[in-house]
Design brief:
single chain; alpha/beta; Rossmann fold; 7-stranded mixed sheet; two-stranded antiparallel sheet; about 20% strand; globular
Protein backbone atom coordinates (compact mmCIF):
# COMPACT_ATOMS: atom_id res chain seq x y z
CA UNK A 1 0.00 0.00 0.00
CA UNK A 2 1.12 3.56 -0.63
CA UNK A 3 1.04 6.35 1.96
CA UNK A 4 -2.35 7.71 0.89
CA UNK A 5 -3.93 4.26 1.08
CA UNK A 6 -2.46 3.62 4.54
CA UNK A 7 -3.73 7.00 5.75
CA UNK A 8 -7.23 6.29 4.49
CA UNK A 9 -7.36 2.76 5.91
CA UNK A 10 -5.98 3.63 9.36
CA UNK A 11 -8.04 6.80 9.74
CA UNK A 12 -11.16 4.70 9.07
CA UNK A 13 -10.03 2.18 11.70
CA UNK A 14 -9.44 4.75 14.42
CA UNK A 15 -12.59 6.70 13.57
CA UNK A 16 -14.62 3.49 13.85
CA UNK A 17 -13.70 3.12 17.53
CA UNK A 18 -16.72 3.68 19.75
CA UNK A 19 -16.86 6.47 22.30
CA UNK A 20 -16.46 3.85 25.04
CA UNK A 21 -13.40 2.33 23.32
CA UNK A 22 -11.88 5.81 22.91
CA UNK A 23 -12.45 6.61 26.61
CA UNK A 24 -10.99 3.27 27.74
CA UNK A 25 -7.97 3.82 25.49
CA UNK A 26 -7.43 7.34 26.85
CA UNK A 27 -7.62 6.09 30.45
CA UNK A 28 -5.19 3.23 29.74
CA UNK A 29 -2.74 5.55 27.97
CA UNK A 30 -2.84 7.94 30.91
CA UNK A 31 -1.99 5.15 33.38
CA UNK A 32 0.74 3.79 31.09
CA UNK A 33 2.47 7.14 30.59
CA UNK A 34 2.17 8.48 34.12
CA UNK A 35 4.02 5.35 35.27
CA UNK A 36 6.66 5.80 32.55
CA UNK A 37 7.22 9.48 33.38
CA UNK A 38 7.07 9.35 37.18
CA UNK A 39 10.74 10.31 37.63
CA UNK A 40 10.20 13.68 35.88
CA UNK A 41 9.64 16.70 38.13
CA UNK A 42 8.22 20.03 36.91
CA UNK A 43 8.82 19.04 33.29
CA UNK A 44 7.92 21.02 30.19
CA UNK A 45 5.77 18.66 28.15
CA UNK A 46 4.26 19.32 24.72
CA UNK A 47 1.06 17.53 23.79
CA UNK A 48 -1.69 18.04 21.24
CA UNK A 49 -5.46 18.26 21.43
CA UNK A 50 -7.22 15.26 19.97
CA UNK A 51 -8.63 15.52 16.45
CA UNK A 52 -9.99 13.10 13.84
CA UNK A 53 -10.17 9.99 16.04
CA UNK A 54 -6.66 10.41 17.49
CA UNK A 55 -5.90 8.85 20.84
CA UNK A 56 -7.33 11.15 23.52
CA UNK A 57 -4.96 13.37 25.48
CA UNK A 58 -7.29 15.28 27.83
CA UNK A 59 -6.85 12.87 30.75
CA UNK A 60 -3.07 12.92 30.31
CA UNK A 61 -3.05 16.73 30.20
CA UNK A 62 -5.03 16.85 33.47
CA UNK A 63 -2.73 14.30 35.13
CA UNK A 64 0.40 16.16 34.07
CA UNK A 65 -0.95 19.42 35.48
CA UNK A 66 -1.85 17.68 38.74
CA UNK A 67 1.80 16.54 38.94
CA UNK A 68 2.97 20.17 38.44
CA UNK A 69 4.27 19.74 34.90
CA UNK A 70 3.89 22.58 32.41
CA UNK A 71 1.81 21.62 29.37
CA UNK A 72 2.50 23.12 25.95
CA UNK A 73 0.33 22.81 22.85
CA UNK A 74 1.29 23.24 19.19
CA UNK A 75 0.48 26.48 17.40
CA UNK A 76 0.94 26.87 13.66
CA UNK A 77 3.90 29.22 13.20
CA UNK A 78 2.60 32.59 11.93
CA UNK A 79 5.72 33.46 9.88
CA UNK A 80 7.45 30.17 8.99
CA UNK A 81 4.99 28.22 6.85
CA UNK A 82 4.68 24.55 7.76
CA UNK A 83 6.31 24.81 11.21
CA UNK A 84 4.95 24.57 14.73
CA UNK A 85 5.58 26.55 17.89
CA UNK A 86 4.79 25.19 21.36
CA UNK A 87 2.92 27.50 23.69
CA UNK A 88 2.16 27.15 27.39
CA UNK A 89 -1.42 26.01 27.91
CA UNK A 90 -3.24 26.45 31.19
CA UNK A 91 -6.84 25.55 31.95
CA UNK A 92 -8.10 29.07 31.20
CA UNK A 93 -5.81 29.83 28.24
CA UNK A 94 -7.66 31.56 25.38
CA UNK A 95 -8.06 29.25 22.39
CA UNK A 96 -8.76 29.70 18.70
CA UNK A 97 -9.38 27.42 15.73
CA UNK A 98 -6.58 27.17 13.16
CA UNK A 99 -7.08 26.82 9.41
CA UNK A 100 -7.44 23.03 9.80
CA UNK A 101 -10.27 23.36 12.32
CA UNK A 102 -8.03 22.29 15.22
CA UNK A 103 -8.06 24.17 18.53
CA UNK A 104 -4.80 25.82 19.50
CA UNK A 105 -3.84 28.50 22.04
CA UNK A 106 -4.20 32.08 20.83
CA UNK A 107 -0.65 33.10 20.01
CA UNK A 108 1.18 34.77 22.89
CA UNK A 109 4.89 35.03 22.09
CA UNK A 110 5.81 35.40 25.77
CA UNK A 111 4.50 31.86 26.40
CA UNK A 112 6.37 30.07 23.60
CA UNK A 113 8.92 27.46 24.65
CA UNK A 114 11.84 26.78 22.27
CA UNK A 115 11.72 23.13 21.25
CA UNK A 116 15.13 22.37 22.76
CA UNK A 117 13.83 23.49 26.19
CA UNK A 118 10.97 20.99 26.18
CA UNK A 119 11.61 17.81 28.15
CA UNK A 120 9.06 15.65 26.30
CA UNK A 121 7.14 16.15 23.08
CA UNK A 122 4.18 13.90 22.29
CA UNK A 123 3.32 13.75 18.62
CA UNK A 124 0.16 12.49 16.94
CA UNK A 125 0.38 10.10 14.02
CA UNK A 126 -1.84 8.25 11.59
CA UNK A 127 0.17 5.01 11.33
CA UNK A 128 3.41 3.49 12.56
CA UNK A 129 5.41 0.33 12.01
CA UNK A 130 7.75 -1.90 14.02
CA UNK A 131 10.79 0.13 12.92
CA UNK A 132 9.51 3.38 14.45
CA UNK A 133 8.46 4.92 11.16
CA UNK A 134 5.66 7.43 11.60
CA UNK A 135 3.07 8.47 9.05
CA UNK A 136 1.38 11.77 9.85
CA UNK A 137 -1.61 13.51 8.29
CA UNK A 138 0.50 14.64 5.34
CA UNK A 139 1.17 18.28 6.20
CA UNK A 140 4.72 17.63 7.42
CA UNK A 141 4.43 20.02 10.38
CA UNK A 142 6.09 17.75 12.94
CA UNK A 143 8.72 16.47 10.47
CA UNK A 144 9.78 20.03 9.56
CA UNK A 145 9.67 21.23 13.16
CA UNK A 146 11.77 18.28 14.39
CA UNK A 147 14.24 18.14 11.48
CA UNK A 148 16.95 20.26 13.16
CA UNK A 149 16.45 18.32 16.41
CA UNK A 150 17.23 15.05 14.60
CA UNK A 151 20.02 16.43 12.42
CA UNK A 152 21.86 17.82 15.45
CA UNK A 153 20.89 14.87 17.69
CA UNK A 154 19.69 16.98 20.61
CA UNK A 155 19.33 15.18 23.93
CA UNK A 156 15.87 16.60 24.49
CA UNK A 157 13.02 16.69 24.10
CA UNK A 158 12.21 13.00 24.20
CA UNK A 159 9.80 12.58 21.28
CA UNK A 160 7.01 10.06 21.83
CA UNK A 161 4.37 9.16 19.26
CA UNK A 162 0.87 8.39 20.54
CA UNK A 163 -1.46 5.97 18.77
CA UNK A 164 -4.15 3.38 19.15
CA UNK A 165 -2.85 -0.16 18.68
CA UNK A 166 -5.00 -0.44 15.52
CA UNK A 167 -2.75 2.21 13.92
CA UNK A 168 0.20 -0.20 13.73
CA UNK A 169 0.85 -1.45 10.20
CA UNK A 170 3.37 -3.88 8.72
CA UNK A 171 5.31 -1.23 6.81
CA UNK A 172 5.20 2.55 6.50
CA UNK A 173 6.74 3.70 3.20
CA UNK A 174 9.15 6.51 4.09
CA UNK A 175 10.36 9.64 2.37
CA UNK A 176 13.66 11.47 2.90
CA UNK A 177 12.00 14.09 5.13
CA UNK A 178 10.29 11.61 7.48
CA UNK A 179 11.47 11.65 11.09
CA UNK A 180 11.50 8.18 12.71
CA UNK A 181 10.54 7.83 16.37
CA UNK A 182 12.41 5.97 19.11
CA UNK A 183 9.30 5.61 21.27
CA UNK A 184 5.65 5.10 20.39
CA UNK A 185 3.12 4.63 23.18
CA UNK A 186 -0.25 2.98 22.79
CA UNK A 187 -2.71 2.24 25.59
CA UNK A 188 -1.37 -1.34 25.66
CA UNK A 189 2.34 -1.09 24.85
CA UNK A 190 5.47 1.04 24.75
CA UNK A 191 7.44 0.43 21.56
CA UNK A 192 11.04 1.56 21.85
CA UNK A 193 13.88 1.32 19.39
Amino acid sequence: MNRAQIRELVRKKRNSLTKKQQQEAENALNLNLIQQLKHYKNAKIALYLTNDGELGTNKLIQSLRTLNHQVYLPVIHPFSAGYLLFQLHEENSPMSTNRYGIFEPKLNCSQICPIEQLDILFTPLVAFDAQGNRLGMGGGFYDRTLAKYYQEQWQKPIVIGLAHECQKVDHVPTEAWDIPLKWIATPEFNYRW
